[in-house]
Write a structure and sequence with these properties.
By secondary structure, this protein is an alpha+beta fold. The chain is built from nine helices and twelve strands. The radius of gyration is 28 Å and the shape is elongated.
């Protein structure tokens, strides 16, 4: 039941985000004196509507988004009443038109900030205790040590093979929950101290490992296997170093951290900034992810970092509430904030029919007009729709195909968070 509620609420959250995007366009257009004839939630047949101050507001039958109609969005379409021609969109100066087009994305960013503030201040985020503060408790014991740094799509080391050496921790009889208190003569009061002591061991050395289990102190001799691993503090595998390895994973407990109402604002902006950076990286990597997405559709392993559709994002929202309940609300809100940041940035891509494309065409017209006037030539006017129609069609075809691949992958082989 929690899963279904999560899916529905997340989908409604996305619908609200899109409608707020359109409301952003409408609000700025009205504030700048433009005429807005319609604002609707949904598409298709009208279920209910009313008129107020020259604008028709309403709800349509298909809840797949929303739209706003600003009179004169295209100077080539005569959709402006004669007495309202001065309020047409295309008659406003480029700065005002740019403000209207930017308003949708800005609304996404502001909504993301609010969602992150709620997540950080109202509900709090479960964060791992730093290794320098956590005891050296073992979370799991591997059966083997993978000598090279060979990983699978999820980023974890590959499965053991018959050629891999058995892990020294398994040989010594270490168990999940054991707390390492010393490596040889070096005491290890924290997980960070344990990791540092292991890295300092000479290759091939046998050392006595002291650990606590069920309140009793025990000692076992271990001979670490030297494996290629990223150095301490590395964020990727660009550099590998020979590292004495036991085949264990340290346990980093989590704690609930709530920011104060004021501190939460700064934290929300910082988190949003990190999400913006991550979104640009994701957009740049989309072409390289397509082959893996196709492979996932036909039974290959789904990369957890692969793009997801609205279907996948909604399923993720359901998984969060189903697995974490009320404790997952902050994660749920953060995920919705991340989607809003993605939508805000994606809409600014300078390709029609996105908002960024409208802005690009608008300023191209402005610059071309200035150049023509400087050369004593007549103003070439607006860009004719038929000249950019091929760009629009190609973009829609490529984006539509990618969206379809993501939807199919999210149905047949979804990304699992838990």
């Amino acid at each position: 039941m929690a899963y279904v509620v999560g899916v529905v609420v997340f989908a409604l959250g996305l619908l609200f985000s899109v409608c707020l995007h359109e409301a952003g366009h409408m609000g700025v257009a009205k504030a700048l004196g433009m005429r807005v004839s319609r604002y609707f939630v949904g598409f298709g047949p009208t279920l209910w509507s009313f008129h107020r101050k020259g604008t028709e507001y309403g709800i349509k039958a298909i809840p797949a988004g929303g739209f706003v109609a600003i009179d004169g969005m295209s100077p080539h379409i005569l959709d402006v009443a004669p007495n309202d021609e001065q309020r047409a969109f295309w008659r406003a100066n480029p700065w005002k038109r740019t403000a209207v087009m930017l308003a949708g994305s800005v609304t996404h960013f502001l909504l993301a900030i609010v969602l992150l503030w709620l997540a950080l201040s109202a509900f709090g985020i479960q964060r791992s205790v730093p290794a320098a503060s956590a005891p050296a408790r073992l979370a799991s014991i591997a059966e083997c040590v993978v000598p090279g740094y060979e990983t699978v799509g999820s980023g974890a080391l590959r499965a053991c093979t018959a050629d891999d050496p058995r892990s020294p921790a398994a040989v010594a009889g270490l168990r999940e929950g054991d707390v390492i208190t010393a490596v040889g003569p070096t005491r290890t009061p924290t997980l960070a101290a344990f990791q540092d002591a292991m890295r300092r061991l000479p290759a091939g050395a046998t050392v006595d490992l002291t650990y606590e289990r069920d309140g009793a102190i025990r000692t076992a001799p271990v001979t670490p296997v030297v494996a290629q691993r990223p150095p301490a503090g590395a964020t990727d595998a660009a550099t590998l170093v020979a590292t004495p390895t036991l085949g264990v994973v340290g346990d980093l407990p989590t704690e609930l951290v709530r920011e104060g109402p004021i501190e939460g604002i700064g934290a929300a902006f910082r988190t949003a900034g990190d999400m913006v950076t991550a979104t640009f990286s994701s957009l740049a990597s989309i072409p390289s992810k397509v082959p893996a997405l196709v492979e996932a559709i036909f039974g290959g392993e789904r990369d957890p970092e692969s793009p997801v559709s609205v279907v996948g994002a909604s399923r993720a929202g359901g998984e969060i509430l189903d697995n974490q309940g009320a404790q997952g609300i902050a994660f749920f809100l953060a995920l919705l904030a991340g989607v809003n940041i993605f939508l805000g940035i994606f809409n600014l891509v300078p390709l029609p029919p996105l908002d960024g494309g409208h802005i690009a065409v608008m300023w191209f017209e402005r610059i071309r007009s200035r150049i023509a006037l400087a050369r004593g030539r007549p103003d070439p006017g607006f860009v004719h729709p038929e000249r950019i129609a091929p760009v629009i069609m190609v973009f829609i075809a490529v984006a539509g195909m990618f969206a379809l691949l993501a939807v199919v992958a999210d149905v047949v082989n979804p990304v699992r968070l838990f």
